Every structure is written in C-alpha cells, then in structure tokens.
Amino acid sequence: MCVVDELVERVDGQDRVLGVVSRREAVREGWLHRVAVTVCRDDRGRILVHRRSEQVSRFPRLYEVEVGGAANVGESYEQAAARELAEELGIRALPRLLFTFLNRSGLSPHWLGVHEAVVPNAVIPDPDEVAWHGWLTEPELRSALLEWRFTPDSHEAFSRYLAFRSAQS
Questions:
Q1: What is the pLDDT along the chain (169 residues), one digit of tens a residue?
Q2: What CA–CA distance (Å, rounded) separates 5 from 144?
Q3: Distance between CA 169 and CA 163 in Å, rounded?
Q4: CA dist., res. 74 & res. 19, Å (int)
Q5: Residues 6+ apart with CB under 8 A from 83
Q6: How many CB atoms lie within 10 A of CB 43?
Q7: How far does CA 36 lie from the centroid of its chain?
Q8: What is the C-alpha separation between 37 and 44, in angstroms, rounded?
Q9: Distance between CA atoms of 52 and 40, rounded to whole angstroms?
Q10: For the whole prediction, is pTM greater than 0.85?
Q11: Phi, psi (rounded to 5 degrees) for 9
C-alpha cells in the first residue's frame, strides 16, 4: 500500500541531496525528490501495463506504463526500482537505469529515474497497489495511451523511453 508520509531525500535542480523530508511535505511544498520507475517488458517485447487500485492515495484507478515509487532515504534509483518491483509485482529483478530527468508532471516536480527490466509473464501484483495488469505491444500501448486514463508520469516517461530506445538503435 502507498505510504503517504514516507521519508525521502529533498534534492536540488542538479539532483544533489539537500536533506531529508517527508514525501507529503515535499509534494505539498513542490520540493524536488527522487522517484524510480521501471518499464517492464516480457521476453516477447510486450510492455506491462497496469491499473492502480482504488486504495492508493495517488492517482487511484488510473493506468500506468511503469512500476515504481519514491526512493527512500539512502536508496539509489536502482535500489528503489528493484524494491518497488518486489513490492508491487512480486518480482525479484535488477532493473537497468536508462536515464533520469526533471519531471514536472504529476502532483509535484521530482527527478524521475527511468529503468527497464525483462520480467516473467507470471507476475503476482499486490492487490492493494494493482487492480489489473496486462501485456501490450507498443502499437497497442500507443492506442491505449490515447483512449485510457493514464497517470501524468506515464505519458512523459514513456515518450522519453521510446526516444531513448530509438536513439540507442
């Protein structure tokens, strides 16, 4: 379940740590902090999409392209991404950090670390976090992004993810 008052590191415009604050305070004050997300692919290249449960405090019932959450105090982006995969999907994986960017969409501005991981088809989502999940091809996901209600981070992160992958090809 999403804990609203977890402790996070407040960071500056260059992603340098300034101190420790509650996430609630960071969101309320618009202070930068770190969030780690992972785009999950299966061995066929499909992308995991999920709908957030009604119980989560942020963006209930909206769809997401990535799995993730705030980095705890002292956690790297990679550690936070791996922890979130385990908590939300029951997956033990070491996601690969692709890039970070200053994301101004969502509840408040934050540094977003975007990762990628190839994960098994058989995920075991936490029902407190995930109400539904499915695997979509890139064309199916592009259509869904136009038709379904996604979190603000999903659009920005996925657009940058596709651009990153294209640049790597």
A1: 344 478 999 999 999 999 999 999 999 999 999 999 999 999 999 999 999 999 988 899 999 999 999 999 999 999 999 999 999 999 998 899 999 999 998 778 999 999 999 998 788 999 999 999 999 999 999 999 999 999 988 999 999 999 999 999 8
A2: 32
A3: 10
A4: 11
A5: 72, 75
A6: 9
A7: 6
A8: 21
A9: 16
A10: yes
A11: -90, 125
DSSP 28-91: HHT---EEEEEEEE-TTS-EEEEEE-TT-SSSTT-EESEEEEEPPTT--HHHHHHHHHHHHH--
**DSSP label at 95?**
P
| CA gap 165, 10 in Å, rounded | 29
Biggest CA pair distance of the chain: 42
Tokens 């740590």 appear where? Answer: 17
Q: Comparing C-alpha atoms, which of 78, 4, 66 is closest to residue 34?
A: 78
Measured CA distances, 89 to 5, 32, 40, 50, 159 (Å): 22, 27, 10, 10, 23
Q: How far apart are CA 39 and CA 49, in angstroms?
A: 9
Residue among 21, 11, 20, 40 nearest 136 (CA): 40
Residue 165 is classified by DSSP as: H
